[in-house]
Amino acid sequence: MAARRSLAVVGLVLLLALGGTWAIVGAQAPTDDASEPTRTVSVVGSGEASAAPDQATVRLGVQTEDVSAADALTQNNEQTMALINALQEAGIATDDIQTQVVQLRPQREQPAEPREGVGEIVGYVATNVVEVIVRDLQNVGAVIDAAVQAGGNTVQGISFRVSDPRSAVTQARERAMLDATMAAEELAALAGAELGEVLTITEARSVPVPFVRAQAEEAVGVPVQPGLETLQVSVSVTWRLR
After folding, report:
1. Other CB atoms closer than 10 Å to residue 219's CB: what's the count?
2. Domain spans of the chain?
3. Are 41 and 187 in contact (CB under 8 A)?
4. Residue 28, SS3?
């Protein structure tokens, strides 16, 4: 009798063990290695906005010549200091005047024949160029006039800029995003899909700067037109398709 009970207990334990193993295996979800690729659409949109410049940057300076290098440089130093003083008297802050070029180079006689090589030194040219920020565009002409009258004889150029372009950039960015979205919606519809969430956005920006050149002899009373500055923004956007 005891032997039969032992066999019965062993059989029950074995049955439970087998039953437990079957339940665990049966609970496993079937696996599927195949996965569908994510469908996306990528579009580049562009937008621009214009703003009126409120600052000007003027590059002007002094160029002097003399047979002596020391004399050419001395004359240049004196005229440059007079130019800087005139700029300050015209309302330009010291921090808005920055030296850009200081140069002393020899002048050589042009040889009669190229085969004769480099000509003899006949003098020296000294150059000093400063960059000036004019924060009131109404004073640009007066600043150039004052510089020329003080001894400035080179005006290399004028550029205009918007000191705070954030509002125009925001407007251009909104237009670029709208441009990209409209194009992406059209492409998605043609493919029989709809736009899902945005996956990536990349932005690029460019700011063309109007530029004006003037010679010193034309500078007195020169009319200055700042025009408009156009800011351009492009965005590259990728959407998931659904």
Report:
1. 20
2. 40-51+165-208+228-241, 55-161
3. yes
4. coil
Tokens of 114: 């190229």
pLDDT digits (tens, 9 = 90+) for 90-132: 999 999 999 999 999 999 988 777 676 778 899 999 999 999 9
Side-chain-facing half-sphere of 28: CA atoms under 13 Å: 7
Sign of CA dihedral 194, 198, 199, 204: positive
How far, in Å, CA of 123 to CA of 165, rounded? 48
CATH no., domain 55-161? 3.30.70.2970
Residue for token digits 């906005």?
A: 49
d(C-alpha 103, C-alpha 63), whole Å: 9
d(CA 221, CA 224) in angstroms, rounded, equals 9
pTM over 0.90: no
Residues 220, 148: contact at Cβ < 8 Å? yes
CA angle 155–227–171, rounded 5-degree value: 130
Burial class (CB in 10 A: 0-12, 13-18, 19+), 94: exposed
Give me the residues of the chain with pLDDT under 50, please: 2-33, 211-220
Three-state secondary-structure class, residue 27: helix
Residue 92's identity, in one-letter code, is I
Amino acid making up residue 202: T
* CA 151, chain centre distance (Å): 36
Contact 218/152 with Cβ under 8 angstroms?
Answer: no
Instruction: Please tell me the CATH code under which domain 40-51+165-208+228-241 is placed.
Output: 3.30.110.170
